[in-house]
Amino acid sequence: MSTESKRPSFIAAILTILFLIAALTFTIVRLEAAPHIPLILAAVVAAAVAFKAGFNWNEIEEGLLHGINVSMKACVILLVIGMIIGSWMLGGIVPSMIYYGLLVLNPAIFLVAICVIACITSLATGSSWTTAGTIGVAAIGIGQGLGVPLPMVAGAVISGAYFGDKLSPLSDTTNLAAAVTGTELFDHVKHMIYTVMPSLIISLILYGVLGARFGAGSANTENIDLIVTTLGDQYFISPILLLPAILVIFMVAFKIPAIPGLLGGVFLGALFAVIFQGADLGAVVNALHYGYEGTTGVEMVDKLLTRGGLDSMLWSISLIFAAMAFGGIMEKTRMLEVIVEKILTVAKNTGSLVLSAVLTCIALNMLAADQYLSIIIPGRMYGPAFKDKGLHSKNLSRITEDAGTMTSALIPWNTCGAFMFATLGVHPFAYLPYAFLNLINPIISVIYGYTGITMEKITDQVKGKGKAKSAGA
User: Fold this and answer.
1) In the chain, is it the N or the C terminus that has fewer CB atoms within a 10 Å radius of its CB?
2) Residue 307 dihedral angles phi and psi, to the nearest 5°
């Protein structure tokens, strides 16, 4: 039996997903345990369903391993970010960022300021991960010193980080969404402005309201003074120590691949630790491997600084492996395809089609656990339906980013959610209510679908070109 003729039933595919949801809910909510085991059990159930549909073990294993292989770059970046945090703590880079941030920022403007800074950084680099691993880590420390709840800080960082991840021409997801849907890159970028800019404006207003509430109570100046004094006593603090963060941002912005660029940040952190903080080689190696441990004697500061290292990322990497194994089996054995096809049969008008595409992107972020699949699969599956309704492909490319890119960091077992948890130290379910840009963007996209706002049609000229191209192919 060929792979093309093997298809699990819609009922079987849905039951597999229901098992995953039930297992995750019971484990996380009732047992208060990690999601790794239910994801592995769900992968076992998916494999059993695939067996019944006629797939053999080699085909199932191929899907499982392919799913994990897709995530390998993300896992390598996670490890490198762990080393960056460890070396930047030891080298005084993050402590310097926290030190100067506490001197300049106050609770009333902090959330707005950090969101804007993250927007600029992510727009320049095209990377939400680089933004979180540099600006985000410092923001968590500054927010803790100012007394701003960390879920709010993480939410502001995530919002700003994903502004550029979605909109920057340097972003891999931006290029992927355009390529998958057959849209010109800059047409895609310009079309996204209609949804992302209103989302950002609303988000900044909400962060301003939250910040004003904290500003009314003022920061605990005793804590701020204690942190600033302790950091000044324990580290050599200087603006020159901000250089590695700036250089990493510029390296990524100037299209140096992410892994070499981030490794450059690790090298600079280790070098600065030796030159400016007097660390020996053994301390550097330990910080890279096990993370940095604060030993200032001030509990609040030690808790702030004890972070990073390869080991700190292994929990997240094992979670990614489990989630991607399940997602790989679901994709290879066509269960995701069967579900999407069923959804398309009930999407009768433009609004319901857009809503279906948005929900599919979100569901794939949950089920396939990777933002790339949440862009690729809907981009492929919904393309003909959008064309049949006379809708330009850039509407679909925008939707895959509005819902696929934006919601990936809100799901703990997604590669992006796992990364943000490991990097910022705040659980995705905790920062989810405050990641305003990520929550608002899909809603605006659906509103546009039902109202027709900015839903550009395929012009007769474009249709004619498409036919001419097909005839000449």
Assistant:
1) C
2) -160, 165
According to the 3-state scheme, what is the secondary structure of 288-328? Answer: HHHCECCCCCCHHHHHHHCECCHHHHHHHHHHHHHHHHHHH
Q: What is the pTM of this model?
A: 0.79
Three-class DSSP category at 71: coil
Least confident of 63-72, 164-173, 210-219: 210-219
Q: What would the two tokens of residue 93 be?
A: 């880079």
Asked if residues 431 and 411 have their Cβ atoms less than 8 Å apart, the reply is: no
In the three-class reduction of DSSP (H, G, I as helix; E, B as strand; rest coil), residue 232 is classed as: helix
Residue 424: name the closest of 159, 68, 106, 36 by CA.
159
DSSP 433: G
Sequence-separated (6 or more) residues with CB below 8 Å from residue 442: 358, 361, 362, 402, 403, 406, 407
Structure tokens at 281: 């080689």
> Checking phi first, is residue 400 left (phi over 0); if not, alpha (psi -120 to 50) or beta?
alpha
* Residue 262 Cα distances to 86, 246, 250, 284, 359, angstroms: 13, 12, 11, 17, 34
Helix (H, G, I), strand (E, B) or coil at 105: coil
> How do residues 186-225 score in pLDDT, each as one tens digit?
889 899 999 999 999 999 999 999 988 876 555 566 778 8
Q: Would you state the structure tokens that stand for residue 320, as one six-digit string?
A: 């990614």
DSSP state of 365: H
